[in-house]
Amino acid sequence: MAVSPNNVVQLLDLAMPDTTENADKPIVCFVLPTYNEEAHIGQTIDAIFANQDKCPGYAFRILVVDDNSSDSTQAIVIQRSAESSLLTMITGNKVGLGDAYKRGFSHALEKFNPDYLFQMDSDGQHNPDVIPEFLNQVDQGYSLVIGSRFVAGGATPEFSLRRKLISKVGNLLVRYVGGVRHVNDCTSGYRCISASYLQRCNLGFLATKGYSFQSSLLCELVLLGAKVKEIPIVFVSRKGGDSKLSWNDQWEFLINIPKLGFHSHADFIRYSIVGFSGVAINLGGYWFLTRHLGMSVETAPLLSIEASLISNFILNHIWTFKDRPSQTAVMMRFLRFHSVAGIAGLANYILFYVAYKYFMFNDLAANLLGIISASLINYLINSNWTWKKS
């Protein structure tokens, strides 16, 4: 897994983990991104190592990825590294949570050869005492175990109504646009991931730098076939320090949502080509029906639109998504394709009307906005529903 971050990673002069110790045990590496976490990082490290005895079948390692904290975070880690050779730290410039995880994953896979990697916050919001349950699910054959706030037993007792709403809506978007409807908590930052799947991830495609990295990585792992299990966790608020969730992170999350559905650029390019051919059939059919058969302008568009829809469906079925086997009958896919076209058409009209009527767009510009939005909606829903892989 090659990662080329913009910032330079600096290895601190800490004792490197002794990878020969417990060589017969699977290695579990905890990747902990930090920035000004002096209030929590020491307790988090101690709590993780305290769970080692509860998981005798595994060998723990901790990698702290610090974004050049301005407080005493690094000093605390250095102090504890003197007590344990199983603790390492790398540092780099502050770019975002996603960037920190990319650097951490790359370093851990290269230096420690772990069998599993944990994503975990360093601010006390993730309870380390749940670690044994994560690894118990790993023993059951799961390759991606998620600490979920939204399954039975999970909770967010200190979330405000606004934050609960934002979280629910965000998860809903990721589940249905990203094709992970079977996952309840798509933005959880508490996970145990099989290294074999993480090595196959195209992290370069996950261009996000902030918190939306979590949802992007989830969709990539599921696409690769990771077997997912959610276990309940109680997510509590920070007891000290400042929250790292900024408006920029929330904006990045929103603009990253459409990308979650683009599992293959090649599929989208083929889908677009088919769409353009449908436009040609629509216009050509309308011209032929009105100019040569004398059909009325009220009736001709209905037939030309239907002709383009049938053509688009056939080409998408035999070309665009030909490598997506499914047990769904062809006629059912055809009906789904039609219903999606209706949804996209309605979205096209609404966006056109709002942009033209209320935002004073030029009518052609407003129509173009509607067409682009409808095209994205069309592709995302058809890719993740009509031609969803079995």
Describe the structure.
It is a single chain. The model is unreliable at 1-11 and 13-17 (pLDDT under 50). Strand 2 (27-34), helix 1 (41-50) and strand 3 (59-66) form a beta-alpha-beta unit. The chain is an alpha/beta fold and 390 residues long. Strands 1-4-3-2-5-7-6-8 form an 8-stranded mixed β-sheet, with helices on both faces. Helix content is 48%, strand content 11%. It contains 12 helices and 8 strands. The protein is elongated and about 90 Å long. It has 2 domains: 10-260, Spore Coat Polysaccharide Biosynthesis Protein SpsA, Chain A (Alpha-Beta Complex), CATH 3.90.550.10; 265-386.
- Provide the helix percentage: 40-55%
CATH topology annotation of the largest domain = Spore Coat Polysaccharide Biosynthesis Protein SpsA, Chain A
CATH-defined superfamily of the largest domain: Spore Coat Polysaccharide Biosynthesis Protein SpsA, Chain A
Beta content = 5-15%
- Biggest sheet, spatial arrangement of strands: 1-4-3-2-5-7-6-8
Total beta-strand segments: 8
Top-tier CATH class of the largest domain: Alpha Beta
Q: Helix-strand pattern, N to C?
A: EEHEHEHEHEHEHHEHHHHH
Mean pLDDT, all residues: 86
Instruction: Estimate nothing, just give the exact number of structural domains.
Output: 2
Q: Based on helices, strands and strand pairing, what is the structural class? A: alpha/beta
Characterize the main sheet.
Answer: 8 strands, mixed
